[in-house]
Amino acid sequence: MSYFIYIFGMKKFIELQLGRVYESNLFDNEPSLKADLEDVDFENFIDRIRNFAETKHSEIEQLHNRDDFRRDFIGDVSHELKTPLFTAQGYLLTVLDDSLDDPLLQQKYLERANKSIERLSYIVKDLDMIAKLESGMKLDQTEFNINATIKDVFEIMEIRANKKNITLAFKEANNYPILVKADKEKIEQVIINLLSNSIKYGSVNGSTLINVSTHSIHQVVVDVIDNGVGIDHKNLSRLFERFYRVDKSRSRDQGGSGLGLAIVKHIVEAHEQEVFVHSQLGEGSTFSFTLNKAI
Ligand code: ADP
Question: Which of 3, 98, 195, 274 has the most Cβ atoms closer than 10 angstroms to its Cβ?
Fold first, then answer.
């Protein structure tokens, strides 16, 4: 008898405590949990509380990660903007200084200030793009001939390639169209970024070859192959991180923002496709990405 009275008392006590929890605003966003108040099934209830706690825990973790990401991003951005900004300011202040009256020197410093401002504008342009990509990208997918798009990009990049006497060509002659389904403008950006890198880090008198081949029944793969400086194996895994550069001074000299490959990765992954790299230091690199064939 006293056992049953004890059990009954315990049950009432627990219900009372749970009632307080339910009446708090903790479950305001969990109406289904709150609805159970009238008829508590303890087995079920404990499982649900556990799930609820796990969900909240992972939400808090996500918020922490996002916060760390934002903090790192702001730190990286201000670090990247500082150098060209202060360099340009330094040259302009020198030109403004009354004691500098040599017009040739003034011209030289103004050109240097202009170069730093150009760098600033590359970085801001790429930052703008990455911010748009990270805040959710809408794809405008159409069917188009990837070979024709590559030819268009060859034309855009021709002047830059000529400066280093780098040949831009298809690896194998192909005059037939290869139809893919993707966001044409964004894929054009991917090819521009990869070709631009193959020139920046390519050897004088070298070449950049593009090959489009079948990857799977539904996919093609586009390879951008250069015979430039190449990348040491230990750096390959971090290459697609924003602001990661193997050789900082070479990247800066070439007008790099450190965001080109991060942009490539975002665009390719938004298409649910893959991007990969093979490279040998001193021999060259091949950057590849897949695309869905148009059916
Ligand atoms: P960046 O603006 O510095 O070129 P990216 O994100 O495009 O930034 O590339 C990141 C880094 O990867 C570069 O700084 C460079 O060190 C390396 N890299 C990219 N493409 C190539 C390539 N084709 N050959 C050698 N190194 C490359």
Answer: 195
3-class DSSP state for residue 215? coil
Q: Is the distance from the beta carbon of residue 241 to the nearest atom of ligand 1 less than 6 Å?
A: no
Any ligand 1 atom below 6 A from CB of 243: no
Q: How far is the CA of 223 from the centre of ligand 1 (A)?
A: 16
Pairing of strands 275-280, 284-292: antiparallel
Lowest mean pLDDT among 80-84, 87-91, 111-115, 250-254: 250-254
Query: How much distance in Å is there from the Cα of 130 to the middle of ligand 1?
Result: 16
Q: Is 251 in the pocket of ligand 1 (CB under 6 A)?
A: yes
The whole-number pLDDT of residue 173 equals 82
Distance between Cα 245 and ligand 1 center (Å) = 6
Write the pLDDT tens digit of every residue in 275-284. Answer: 999 999 999 9
Expressed in angstroms and rounded, the spacing between residue 120 Cα and the centre of ligand 1 is 18
38 has pLDDT over 60: no
Q: What is the DSSP annotation of 148-168?
A: HHHHHHHHHHHHHHHHTT-EE
Specify the higher pLDDT residue, 272 or 79: 272
DSSP of 66-120: HHHHHHHHHHHHHHHHHHHHHHHHHHHHHHHSTT---HHHHHHHHHHHHHHHHHH
